[in-house]
Structures are given as C-alpha cells and as structure tokens.
Amino acid sequence: MLKKLWRKIFLSTFQKVSQEAVPKMPVVSLNNQTIGILTLAILCLVFTEYWSSLSYLIKSLANISLPLSNQLKYWLKTHAHPQWIKTVYWSMVTIVFFLLVPLAYIRWWLKKPLKDFGWQWRATRQDILIYLTCLLCMLPIVWVVSSSPVFLAKYPFYQPQPNEVAWERYFILWQLVYLLQFVAVEFFFRGFMLHGIKKQLGIYSIWVAMLPYCMIHFGKPLPETLGAIAAGLVLGTFSLKNNSVWLGVLLHYGVAITMDLLALWHKGLLFK
To answer: Is the whole-model pTM more than 0.90?
Structure first.
C-alpha cells in the first residue's frame, strides 16, 4: 500500500517536475526570476523574524525617539488582553511578508498569473481523500503530544487565562487571523518559492523551500520541528502535483486548530 502510494504520488510527481525543468544551462547563465524570488524570500524571512515582535517594534521606535513607542506601551499595559494583541500583531506581520508582498511581486513585477504559483483551487476527489487520510493519520499523534508539558507551554499561541473576561470571543477572532496566517505560510513556501524556482531547480525546489520552512520552527518543540521536514516533503509534493496550495492550507490548519482545542481542554478551559 505505502509502496504503491509512493510510486503513484511522489515518484510520478518528481518525474513530471523533472521533465518540466529547463535543460542544464551554462555556468555563466543566470535566471532573473529565480534570483529575484530567492532574494525576496530572504528579505521577507528577515523582516518577519524581527518585525513580528511587538516588543522589538516598541524598542526600535524608542531608539529613534518616536512618541508612538510610549503610546504602544501604555496600550499594552491597559488592554484587557495584551497577549492577544501581541499574537495578532505577529500574525499580521507574517501575512504581510509571506502573502501580500509575494502576491504583489508576482502580479506587478513578474507580471505572471497567480495560478502559476499555486494560487488556485485545484483538486480531484482522490486528492481530497488523500488529504483527509493524512489528517486522520495526524490526529492520533496530535492527541498524544497535546498533553505534553512542552506543547502545552507553547500552544495555543494565544493562551487565555481562566480569569480573563470574554476570552472565548478573542480566541475565535484569533483563530480567524491564525487561518489567514496559514494561508500566508503555505503560499510563501509551497507556492511562491516552490513554484517560482521549480523550472530551474526541478524537484530539488522542494528541498530548497523546505530548508527555511524547517528553520522557522526553531524554538518550537523538537518533535514539531522534525515533523516540519516530513510536512515540507509531503505538502511540497502535493502542491506540485495539483499546482495548488489550498488543500495544504486546510490540512495544516486542521492539525493546528485540533492542537489548540486539545491544549485548551487539557488546561481545563474547554468543556469544563
């Protein structure tokens, strides 16, 4: 069964992408699209790493003597849900640099259709069944790790306290932003990067996109970081197979929201 699945999905996709890759070019030849996409990806990763921290933003504003830093400090100090503010800010910065900037670059600089980068819904019934199977296979693993102190200390990113007022409403709003963040993450790594360089690098584009994707998981629990390697391979292959990132978004978010809900349940905040 697994051998047949490997041949039908992975090997067939690898062969198709390899056939579509351009022939080997002379050493002196450069491809502007590949260079541009990889350079922009590096810049987006750098800006997201630094500017997604609201504390870093406040310190930076203070260093250039802008009064906005004091206003932000006061706002965080007096707001009923300061952690929610920080978490939503982090997600919004990620959405800007992982989604909006690449979309603008493709549309107005490369002047290419967004569907060439996986920005389209495209899936057969078999594809949907495969994704559902992957999700069902992940759920028992999520169930086991969700009770781990390491995971409970990390998830959910917005961690409401039992005495917080109306935390349920803020949690739902956070999940909506969180879903958009997964759209951004999937498009950045399995759309913009992967499809943008596949003609030059062929199947190796999966591993090129997988490297920074794994690195953004540094600081998270080790099993999750190792799992990002497998996720990068599977979701990257599926994105190339369907030329679409959307099933990957649903799978990724499906695992994430399950983890969040289980974490809240283990903390006694859900279904008390």
So the answer is: no
